[in-house]
Amino acid sequence: MWESQSAMDSLTSAVRSNIIPNQEYLLQGSILDVYVEVLLHRLRGLCDNVDSGPESFNDHELCFTLRGSNTSPQMAIPLRVRRALDVQDAPWQLRYVGQHELGGRNRPTLVRSSLDVACSNTIVEFLTELGCRIDFEYIARGYMFRKGRMKITVSKIFKMVANKPGESVEPISQSYLVELSVLAPSGQNAIAEDMRIFAEQLKPLVELEKIDYKRLIHVP
Amino acid sequence: MQQREEKQLESALESIILRVNDLKSSIAAMIFKVENEYDTMNWPTFLDNYALLSGHLTSLSKILSHDKCPPLRNLTILPLMLSPERDEQLAQVTEHRVSTFAHDIVPDYLRTKLEPMAETKMNQLEHKAASLTYDNAQKQVAAYQKVVSHIWDIVSKSREEWEVESSSRGNAQQNSNVADTDMLVAAVSMGKGLKMVGNPNGQPGPTGCMVPPPGRPGSGPGPMPPSTQPMTMNKAPSAIKTNIKSATQIHPYSR
Amino acid sequence: MGVTILQQFPIENRTGPATIELLTKRISALGAVQQGHFLVDCETYSSVANLGPPRTVHVLHNSEQPASCFSILDTGTKTIPLAADGLFDLLMLKMNYFYQAKKQTKAESKGPRFEIGDFCVKLGTVTVSQNFKGILVEVEYRPCVVPGMCWELIREFMQGVLGSSVQSNPPPYLATRMQENYTPIDTIHQYLEHFTMFRKSPGMRT
């Protein structure tokens, strides 16, 4: 009789029919500052948003974890908040990023579960009061490109020296971080192949790879 | 003997026709693409098509220069009968491009000599060359050779430079740095090197890194940071190292 | 989006459906036209012991904002509202280990939705874990977003439909925000206040 279905019911059916983009396919790499112009030029030629030019961004990312007093690290929930420093009215982005799976040799990209939720600017206070602790934060400035469903970001990562974004920031390396990613419902592995082909076109300027995070624990 | 030559000619013609047809169909395919798929076609596909064309051209010229290929220029074609009537068979063979084998078009299609205008021009030049004195001709040739060899020098010199440069770039892989990649990925994924440097308390606190009140901090995004200041960059690694050490020793969240 | 006032309508000795029918008749007589149904629901999660001081997260949906999910975090000393995409529900499920849904507390208000001129009226039957609890009437005046500028008008309209049960003062939640711009989260706050009261009240006959 009721026309209105509860929000939870429709969400459950969306989950069941597997239309919720909850998997992130990811390739990462970097390029030295001096060559970034060459890369941007190449991306401008390869990507969709040719007419409008690349979209620049200046974001502040805060990384939280939700964990109890005696919970094991595996149970802790990582949550990230990202906000645009250059567009004041844009919604804030809340993001859950799960464990990444490297997969076998024949899987071209890293895959990790991911949930992206746009939200109001009360999110930081909300998370803090929820029991989340901030782990670290950084500023990412750079350019975003699109190619079909693929997203390519070229970003400079800064650490915040004083605790306020925008005041005094310090680049953490002499390279730009380059990321190629797609957010898709699970099981759409064909997109990974598209990403591999796209990554091929950026060689030898940038080597986009599946990066094994376990190896990074030992990075100095 | 003659029979063998004929056979050779036949097979050569056959393979030439085959190649020409290949070339023709790929040109047609490319024209079709440019006309009908111009809004979806991307640069790599276009280049692929182009590569296909040049491949066909190369194989065609290989066949023509092959030593098994009989010297085609020694052969003659004699039009035996011209007719203003429409020739269905001819039309079919030529895909309706040529429908009659008539006197007005045959000279164009079967011409082996130069165009009359070009021919008179050639004659004039040849006449002029023949009337030159030997010394004069020698002088001109020498001058010309000098110019050519000079240009040759310039070209080969720059080619050398270019090759050296590109090979050195290819070997050194200076576009990106694996250590930088690892460091950047470790930073954004695990916070390596980002955990609260310069906080006077030394410990991250939930209030220490709060978001500032709304309102744009100073300038907008501004231009992208140019090459980073060498001063801070030289210092950065050591600061990061010590910070990680302290972060692992006293973990802020374990109680 | 305008200003919304939510209030309980006493059912006296009628049943729930009879009360809805009565109100439907009254409002249809004024010329209101039914435009579908509405649904507001609320699920409440509480923190587990090892997360420190107890906290509660209320997650609400309103069919008027179908792509959104509203949360109100109650720490005991303050409340923090959050408006988010519908996917926030999935995130709540991820936090299952730390925040668990309270059993037997799922509250809903649903029923017919009417439009009459600049007003939108919703007659909601409230249930808490399927048990009938009462009737909530929502009246929205759509051309205006500042409560202070249209409260008198809304009150007069409500008194015309609901009679003497209408208070002469705005609901306490709105009273402190009369000059601010009204947003969807304010409606959510009002629903949560009523749901909380209904959860405490004993069951009603249907």
UniProtKB/TrEMBL annotation, chain A:
<comment type="function">
    <text>Component of the Mediator complex, a coactivator involved in the regulated transcription of nearly all RNA polymerase II-dependent genes. Mediator functions as a bridge to convey information from gene-specific regulatory proteins to the basal RNA polymerase II transcription machinery. Mediator is recruited to promoters by direct interactions with regulatory proteins and serves as a scaffold for the assembly of a functional preinitiation complex with RNA polymerase II and the general transcription factors.</text>
</comment>
<dbReference type="Pfam" id="PF09637">
    <property type="entry name" value="Med18"/>
</dbReference>
<protein>
    <recommendedName>
        <fullName>Mediator of RNA polymerase II transcription subunit 18</fullName>
    </recommendedName>
</protein>
<comment type="subunit">
    <text>Component of the Mediator complex.</text>
</comment>
<keyword id="KW-0010">Activator</keyword>
<keyword id="KW-0804">Transcription</keyword>
<keyword id="KW-0539">Nucleus</keyword>
<comment type="similarity">
    <text>Belongs to the Mediator complex subunit 18 family.</text>
</comment>
<keyword id="KW-0805">Transcription regulation</keyword>
<dbReference type="InterPro" id="IPR019095">
    <property type="entry name" value="Mediator_Med18"/>
</dbReference>
TrEMBL record, chain B:
<comment type="subunit">
    <text>Component of the Mediator complex.</text>
</comment>
<keyword id="KW-0539">Nucleus</keyword>
<keyword id="KW-0010">Activator</keyword>
<dbReference type="Pfam" id="PF10232">
    <property type="entry name" value="Med8"/>
</dbReference>
<feature type="compositionally biased region" description="Pro residues">
    <location>
        <begin position="211"/>
        <end position="228"/>
    </location>
</feature>
<comment type="similarity">
    <text>Belongs to the Mediator complex subunit 8 family.</text>
</comment>
<protein>
    <recommendedName>
        <fullName>Mediator of RNA polymerase II transcription subunit 8</fullName>
    </recommendedName>
</protein>
<keyword id="KW-0805">Transcription regulation</keyword>
<keyword id="KW-0804">Transcription</keyword>
<comment type="function">
    <text>Component of the Mediator complex, a coactivator involved in the regulated transcription of nearly all RNA polymerase II-dependent genes. Mediator functions as a bridge to convey information from gene-specific regulatory proteins to the basal RNA polymerase II transcription machinery. Mediator is recruited to promoters by direct interactions with regulatory proteins and serves as a scaffold for the assembly of a functional preinitiation complex with RNA polymerase II and the general transcription factors.</text>
</comment>
<dbReference type="InterPro" id="IPR019364">
    <property type="entry name" value="Mediatior_Med8_fun/met"/>
</dbReference>
<feature type="region of interest" description="Disordered">
    <location>
        <begin position="198"/>
        <end position="236"/>
    </location>
</feature>
UniProtKB/TrEMBL annotation, chain C:
<keyword id="KW-0804">Transcription</keyword>
<keyword id="KW-0805">Transcription regulation</keyword>
<comment type="similarity">
    <text>Belongs to the Mediator complex subunit 20 family.</text>
</comment>
<keyword id="KW-0539">Nucleus</keyword>
<dbReference type="Pfam" id="PF08612">
    <property type="entry name" value="Med20"/>
</dbReference>
<comment type="function">
    <text>Component of the Mediator complex, a coactivator involved in the regulated transcription of nearly all RNA polymerase II-dependent genes. Mediator functions as a bridge to convey information from gene-specific regulatory proteins to the basal RNA polymerase II transcription machinery. Mediator is recruited to promoters by direct interactions with regulatory proteins and serves as a scaffold for the assembly of a functional preinitiation complex with RNA polymerase II and the general transcription factors.</text>
</comment>
<comment type="subunit">
    <text>Component of the Mediator complex.</text>
</comment>
<protein>
    <recommendedName>
        <fullName>Mediator of RNA polymerase II transcription subunit 20</fullName>
    </recommendedName>
</protein>
<dbReference type="InterPro" id="IPR013921">
    <property type="entry name" value="Mediator_Med20"/>
</dbReference>
<keyword id="KW-0010">Activator</keyword>
